[in-house]
Amino acid sequence: MERSNPPRVLAVAGFKKSGKTRVVEGLVRELVSRGRRVGTVKHIREEDFSIDQEGKDSWKHVKAGAKSVMVLSPNETALIEKREMGARDALRFFQGFDFVILEGFRELEGVARVVVPRNEAEIPQLVNQFTVACIGNFKCERPNFGFEDSKALADLVEKKAFPLLPELDCQHCGYNSCEEFGLAVITGLKGWAACETLQERAVLEVDGRKVPLNPFVQELVSKIVGGVTMSLKETKGKEIVLRVRRDEG
Ligand code: SF4
Q: So what's the pLDDT on residue 1?
């Protein structure tokens, strides 16, 4: 079985009514036309926002105290969780995707970023060291693209975007930190696959949150689990998921 890589991530950052959604739409269309599986995450700042509608059955479930409500229909599945979730947690839902485009996470560092300023004065507030492009006709010290340049922008994203960095700083890639490695990918010095941790030979999740494992531990876990399950014919070439509950103390 071919192992799926973690999705590569791109943030499209800008202030309100800057045209971020237009950029995301263009990129999604272009990447999908290339056969990529694309997901998006939209960040909404308004505290009183709710996707749930008053009076609907799902709304009544929440009113009654449900913390998580799932709505299934023939064409759509919606999960409403009554809590705030960060970008890292949200990305757990995109296993098997090629790209995830995040719209609106201005504070998020460590992922490739495209900025959509409304004017030149906003550029210093939006551009960070991971910025790969600037939309609009501004002096930005990054490659400029127009709103209609989705094809060229998608070419750039295919080259520069990388999966969420593990924050392990294990230095196996030859860089002192994951952040330095990410910058090397942005500048084209390295390909993201040079980080063995991101190859995800073994994945550890504790209470649903992914815990990065260095390449040595991944190899070890993969060999131990592979060895233990070797006699089970149905595991050959398959992804194996093992759940362990540790006793307290
Ligand atoms: S090998 Fe991966 S996890 Fe280790 S420092 Fe480099 S980027 Fe980070």
A: 42
Q: 3-class DSSP state for residue 215?
A: helix
Query: What is the mean pLDDT for each group of 10 consecutive residues in the chain (249 residues)?
Result: 76 95 98 97 87 91 95 93 87 91 92 96 95 92 94 96 90 93 94 85 76 78 76 74 75
Enter the tokens of residue 16.
């309100």
Are 185 and 62 in contact by the 8 Å Cβ rule? The answer is: no
Selection from 208, 212, 203 nearest residue 240 by Cα: 203
If you count them, how many residues does the chain have?
249
Tokens of 171: 């230095």
* Closest by Cα among 88, 85, 97 to 8: 97
Q: What is the DSSP code string of 31-83?
A: HHHTT--EEEEE----TT--SS-TTSHHHHHHHTT-SEEEEE-SS-EEEEESS
Helix (H/G/I), strand (E/B), else coil: 162: strand
Q: Which of 43, 45, 52, 38 is nearest to 81 (CA)?
A: 52
Quote the CA–CA distance of 115 and 18 in Å, as a whole number. Answer: 10
Task: Specify whether the CB–CB gap between 39 and 31 falls below 8 A.
Answer: no
Q: What is the pLDDT of residue 113?
A: 97
Closest Cα to atom 4 of ligand 1: 170
Give every CB contact of residue 246 below 8 A, 6+ residues apart in sequence.
none
Distance separating alpha carbons of residues 135 and 138, to the nearest angstrom: 8
Ligand 1 contact, 158 CB (< 6 A): no
Strands 144-145 and 162-163: unpaired
Identify the residue whose C-alpha is closest to ligand 1 atom 7: 178
pTM for the whole thing?
A: 0.83
